[in-house]
Design goal:
Helix content is 26%, strand content 26%. It is α/β, with parallel strands linked by helices. The chain has two domains: 5-109 and 263-340 and 392-397, FAD/NAD(P)-binding domain (3-Layer(bba) Sandwich); 112-261, 3-Layer(bba) Sandwich (FAD/NAD(P)-binding domain), CATH 3.50.50. Strand 20 and strand 21 form a beta hairpin. Helix 1 (16-27) packs parallel to helix 9 (311-329).
Length: 400
């Protein structure tokens, strides 16, 4: 058997969390940092909403992985098959074994398309799309701009998803477009939502409820899409608002479907996972250190920290993880804590945006000295132009 490769710090995942954390570690002088990432392309996913809304081209959201990989970091272009946190080893799909001193788990989460019968076969065709995939976001715009009447349905699955506001962002952009085209009155817009409220922070929810009223959107709270019948042009919806569950079928001409999401299957099978159903890594929410293995950390979408799964959360999580890893390596303790900060820039119209920032307690946590509890044009420009610059030029380089 070939001898295992060893790295002082091993990062799993070349997405936002992995690249940002590795870049920060390099800037702190850590020379032996490696990232396991099989993909050739890195995506700025928050902009996919604007791709689906016909505002930005998809190509603007993609860059070669080699261009964003931090200088001096070893890129292991492979996929993870298993983690043994006891022996401190990661097994790759190629059969290689990597030993580590510290492990930072940041693989993101997977889209479980097959959990909705009928969805994998039709998505991208026949009026069904999703902004949760690079190749499908342009199809969303194709269907939106071609629609002149009928039933438009937007869905949210039960359970945690990345960028929880994205399903309604595209709904508002679509409704705004149809309103500008003079056809909104001929389109029935329905939002299928598993929760009992439009947003978890009351001050932002009140604004969004006004947006819903403005567009005449029918929100079906405590409902979830569970199947698609493409031949009939209908979805099956389960109603959990009463004492017993009931199901009914709704017609659609355009359907923006968000698939259920969970940790990667290989991660669910490890001893790092909180449970085997969704598989999120069990961490201390303040330090993001694993609750059982002190040399393992997890940040980003794959952790079970009770906050929204967003890039804004990662930007606040990465400095905490780096501080604790460095302190632990020095035999010290860090006082740095993550308070659950996350941000959800919700597009409410072309040129209008509600910037929702909040913490673990679902309390507003503004980072800008402006009243962001209302629709603003300046926040729209921040999302469209400012945040991508921050992402590519500062965040991924460990500078913000």
């Amino acid at each position: 058997m070939a001898q295992a490769t060893h790295h002082e710090i091993l990062v799993i995942g070349g997405g936002t969390a992995g690249i940002t954390t590795a870049a920060r570690l390099r800037r702190k002088g850590k020379d032996d940092v490696a990232i396991v990432e099989p993909s050739d392309t890195h995506y700025y996913q928050p902009l996919w909403t604007l791709v689906g809304g016909g505002i930005e081209p998809a190509a603007k959201t993609a860059r070669p992985m080699a261009k964003v990989m931090p200088s001096g970091v070893t890129w292991i272009k492979d996929a993870v098959e298993a983690i043994d946190p006891v022996d401190q080893q990661v097994t790759l799909e190629s059969g290689r074994t990597i030993e580590y001193g510290y492990l930072i788990v940041a693989p993101g989460i997977q889209l479980d398309w097959d959990k909705v019968p009928g969805l994998p076969d039709v998505v991208g065709t026949r009026g069904v799309s999703s902004n949760y995939r690079y190749d499908l976001a342009p199809r969303t715009w194709d269907f939106i701009k071609d629609m002149k009447s009928g039933h438009a349905v937007f869905t949210v699955p039960d359970g945690a998803i990345k960028c929880g506001g994205a399903p309604q962002k595209i709904m508002y952009l679509a409704s705004d477009h149809w309103q500008r085209q003079g056809v909104l009155d001929d389109i029935d817009v329905t939002f299928i939502l598993p929760g009992d409220g439009i947003f978890g922070v009351p001050s932002f929810a009140r604004v969004l409820e006004q947006v819903i009223d403005r567009y005449g959107i029918n929100v079906m709270y405590e409902h979830e899409m569970v199947a698609i019948d493409a031949e009939a042009g209908e979805i099956t919806v389960v109603d959990r608002s009463g004492d017993t569950e009931t199901t009914n079928r709704l017609p659609y001409d355009f359907l923006h479907a968000v698939p259920p999401q969970s940790a990667p299957d290989w991660l669910k099978a490890t001893d790092l996972a909180e449970d085997t159903a969704v598989g999120y890594v069990d961490v201390d929410p303040a330090t993001l250190r694993h609750t059982k293995y002190p040399n393992v950390y997890c940040l980003g979408d794959a952790s079970n920290a009770p906050t929204a799964k967003t890039g804004a959360a990662v930007r606040k999580q990465a400095p905490v993880v780096v501080a604790h890893v460095l302190a632990d390596m020095a035999g010290e303790e860090s006082e740095k804590r993550y308070n659950g900060y996350s941000s959800c820039p919700i597009t409410t119209a072309r040129g209008k945006l509600l910037l929702a920032e909040f913490d673990y307690n679902s309390d507003p946590a503004p980072s800008i000295p402006l009243n962001t509890a209302k629709e603003r044009t300046d926040m729209w420009y921040l999302k469209r132009y400012g945040l991508p610059v921050l992402y590519w030029n500062l965040m991924l380089k460990g500078l913000a």
